[in-house]
Design brief:
This protein is α+β, with helices and mostly antiparallel strands. The protein has one domain: Chorismate synthase, AroC fold, CATH 3.60.150.10. It has a five-stranded antiparallel beta sheet. Helix 1 crosses helix 6 and helix 6 crosses helix 10. It is globular, with a radius of gyration of 22 Å. It starts with a strand and ends with a helix. Bound molecules: flavin mononucleotide (FMN). The site of flavin mononucleotide has 20 residues, from helix 10.
Length: 388
């Protein structure tokens, strides 16, 4: 399974094409729209989120509510493109109009300046439009298709915020994936500890008043994972490594960890390894899940626990100093639009990219043309694993 996304932040539409989803997967626009809505929500998001209310349109690969095995094309219309017709026009326009919304003051922490240098632009809007996190809309759409596939195989994903701008959220122990999902869905800041809700919202309000921004850490968990996805035989087949790439590819994500993650560097081996147990009912299990579901780049059947760190949003209403690329004079950076935080939304994107990599991996190990064929192969594998 492979996919590409296309589209600009203020262009007419965003597009994704996915190839390799088996035929027969029940799929509706509603499955996708629900996650698109979650990506647009979360406490602390601003006006564009209200304008957009994204809706996906399938233009290929789905017929009568089921996938056909053909490439799936999904489009999301950018509703505010109507106000950007000249500025984003594919046809050449008069120079007088070109200077409208031209960007010559690059924003620190964004792709503006380096993109301009690299592609030789005199208007940094060309970098901004594609590097914008608006693109993550389509990664969420692709992830929603992947999640539908995983759900058919009894795999479940959830995400929640575990650190909000330095404030650690104390997570109750032994929550199931379903409980995490349910609790995070009830929270406007996507946390599982309701007692901290008001404090975090007040904090976001304060950051907004200060004209500043915050990042944090989001966690994705996956339950029902078959043993043996990924492989140790080649560096680029290690599934934890593939997930790491996917997570750090999300705009503003700067690092990733599994299970105990960096904490493992502070502990002794006896406090890190997950002891192996066996029972007739469950087959092989582990006493703990410190390694986040991975050994040797392969899934070990424990829930996958992966965390990503998001830097604070770079666009500040208290703008930072920059340089005009035409005059080289110091200037305040351009403010396109911004929010104090996008962490809850970023968690939705992270869950989507994790689900996508897992669906790719499943389809690599259990290559199938049809969903029933895939289900049979996975069920057979689970049976084998349990009795090994
Ligand atoms: C869901 C999401 C929403 C974002 N929203 C904004 C935003 O409103 N303003 C902004 O300046 N950056 C936002 N970002 C971050 C930028 O897109 C990102 O920092 C920038 O493209 C530079 O890429 P880099 O941080 O990966 O180096 C957002 C990121 C995500 C994941």
């Amino acid at each position: 399974m492979r996919y590409l996304t296309a589209g600009e932040s203020h262009g007419p539409r965003l597009t994704a094409i996915i190839e390799g989803i088996p035929a027969g997967l029940p799929l509706t626009a509603e499955d996708i729209n629900e996650d698109l809505k979650r990506r647009q929500g979360g406490y602390g998001r601003g006006d564009r989120m209200k304008i957009e209310s994204d809706q996906v349109v399938f233009t290929s690969g789905v017929r009568h509510g089921k996938t056909t095995g053909a490439p799936i094309t999904m489009d999301v219309i950018n509703k505010d493109h109507q106000k950007w017709l000249d500025i984003m026009s594919a046809e050449d326009i008069e120079d007088r109009l070109k200077s409208k919304r031209k960007i010559t003051h690059p924003r620190p922490g964004h792709a503006d300046l380096v993109g301009g240098i690299k592609y030789r632009f005199d208007d940094l809007r060309n970098s901004l439009e594609r590097s914008s996190a608006r693109e993550t809309t389509m990664r969420v759409a692709v992830g929603a298709v992947a999640k539908r596939l995983l759900a058919e195989l009894n795999m479940e994903t959830a995400n929640h915020v575990v650190v909000f701008g330095g404030k650690e959220i104390d997570v109750p122990e032994n929550l199931t994936v379903a409980e995490i999902k349910e609790r995070a869905a009830q929270s406007e800041v996507s946390i599982v500890n309701q007692e901290r809700e008001q404090e975090i919202k007040d904090y976001i309000d304060q950051i907004k008043r200060d004209g500043d921004t915050i990042g944090g850490v989001v966690e994705t968990v996956v339950g029902g994972v078959p043993v043996g996805l990924g492989s140790y035989v080649q560096w680029d087949r290690k599934l934890d490594a593939r997930l790491a790439q996917a997570v750090v590819s999300i705009n503003a994500f700067k690092g990733v960890e599994f299970g105990l993650g960096f904490e493992a560097g502070y502990r002794k081996g006896s406090q890190v390894m997950d002891e192996i147990l066996w029972s007739e009912e469950d087959g092989y299990t582990r006493r703990t899940n410190n390694l986040g579901g991975f050994e040797g780049g392969m899934t070990n059947g424990q829930p996958i626990v992966v965390r990503g760190v998001m830097k604070p949003i770079p666009t500040l209403y208290k703008p930072l100093m920059s340089v005009d690329i035409e005059t080289h004079e110091p200037y305040k950076a351009t403010v396109e639009r911004s929010d104090p935080t996008a962490l809850p939304a970023a968690g939705v994107v992270m869950e989507a990219v994790v689900a996508t990599v897992l669906a790719q991996e499943i389809l690599e190990k259990f290559s199938s043309d049809n969903l029933e064929e895939l289900k049979e192969a996975v069920a057979k594998h689970r049976d084998y694993t349990k009795n090994y």
